[in-house]
Structures are given as C-alpha cells and as structure tokens.
C-alpha cells in the first residue's frame, strides 16, 4: 500500500512538473481557446513609442473564433471609448463604421483586412492572442508565475538589417481561465524602445446564448 502511494505521488509530481513547461502551458491555453465560443472585453492599451511619447486608449471588443477564416482565424467588433467609429470583421468582409454620419465602408480585400487591426483606431484594441495564441518564429521561452497568473515570455530573433533588438512578447495568462489577460510586445531599434501593452480589465466568455 505504501509503495502504491509513493508511486502515485511520484506520478503526480511528474505531471505537475510537466505542466510548468512553456510547451505544456501553450497547449493548455490552446485547449481553453478551443472551448471559447466568444469573448467580450474592455481593454486598455498603453504604448511607449520610439519618440518617448506615451499613447493610451481604451474601449470594448467582441471576438469570436472562426476556423473557416484563413485571414485572421477570428471575427471581431471593436470600438474606442469616446469615438464614433467602429471596426468589424465578419470572417468575410471588413467594415469601417461611422456612427456619426451613419455610413460604412466595406473592406473586401484580404490584404487590407490586417489593416483593420494594425492601421489604427479601434482595431488597435484587438488582442489576437486571446483567441488564437501565436508562438510562431519564437526562438526561446521563459515562464514565471504567481498566485493568479502565468507569465510567458516569448523571445524573437533580432532583425539586424534595421538594428532591431530585444524583441519579445509577454503573455499574462489567467490561471483560472487559462486565457491571456494581458500582452506586452517589446522591441528596441537603435536603442529606442517601442513597447505596446494590452491589459484586459473586464471579460465575459461564452455564457448563455450568443453574444
């Protein structure tokens, strides 16, 4: 009996140790994302720009996984606080909504869909890693934790042609939901820092009915 208890305890220790590896953590996040039908969140983004200026914004985002979409892999609707513009992607078309003038512009070109996110405005509030964690092109990982979160640092190679160094992303992963709750993207160009920090302040995932 004592030997059996020791074997079970040893197995539990091995499983716990395995769960602490970056690969095991990423697998757990992806599993949680598979069970995510939709998420609605309020978010604050704070950017440190290469000029030394600080840029802050906040707003609301709806995200929904879309396995049939080859462009982003998810749908979204995003709105900045205090702004009358909204950005939407339904898995087929992108839309730029102007609530003030009650008009919209469609974006059918797949090459321009990414502009909805990276081209400014409400799209800057979309945090793709919440729905689709991305570790592509990583050259290394560091994992730490506290009582509430895991912190996964994902390192990337320097981009020498433009002297871009210290490239990394840090995902803050909630230990209860196993979903990213914050993301920091960092790089330095000729010694000048660019640091983009997304922090989800409130989130609702799944629930009854559709969002």
Automatic annotation (TrEMBL):
Keywords: Signal. Residues 1-19 form the signal peptide. The keyword Signal applies. This is Outer membrane lipoprotein-sorting protein.
């Amino acid at each position: 009996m004592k030997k059996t208890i020791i074997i079970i305890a040893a197995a539990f220790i091995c499983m716990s140790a395995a769960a602490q590896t970056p690969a095991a953590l990423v697998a757990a996040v992806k599993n949680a994302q598979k069970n995510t039908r939709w998420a609605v969140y309020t978010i604050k983004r704070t950017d440190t720009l290469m000029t030394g200026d600080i840029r802050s914004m906040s707003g609301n985002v709806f995200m929904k996984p879309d396995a049939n979409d080859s462009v982003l892999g998810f749908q979204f609707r995003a709105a900045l606080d205090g702004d009358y513009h909204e950005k939407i992607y339904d898995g087929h078309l992108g839309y730029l909504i102007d609530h003030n003038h009650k008009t919209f512009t469609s974006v059918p070109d797949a090459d321009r869909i990414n502009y909805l996110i990276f081209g400014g405005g409400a799209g800057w509030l979309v945090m793709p890693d919440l729905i689709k964690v991305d570790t592509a092109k990583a050259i290394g990982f560091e994992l730490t934790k506290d009582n509430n979160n895991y912190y996964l640092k994902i390192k990337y190679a320097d981009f020498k042609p433009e002297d871009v160094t210290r490239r990394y992303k840090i995902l803050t992963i909630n230990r209860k939901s196993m979903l990213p709750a914050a993301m920091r993207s960092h790089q330095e160009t000729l010694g000048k820092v660019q640091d983009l920090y997304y922090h989800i302040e409130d989130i609702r995932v799944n629930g009854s009915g559709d969002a």
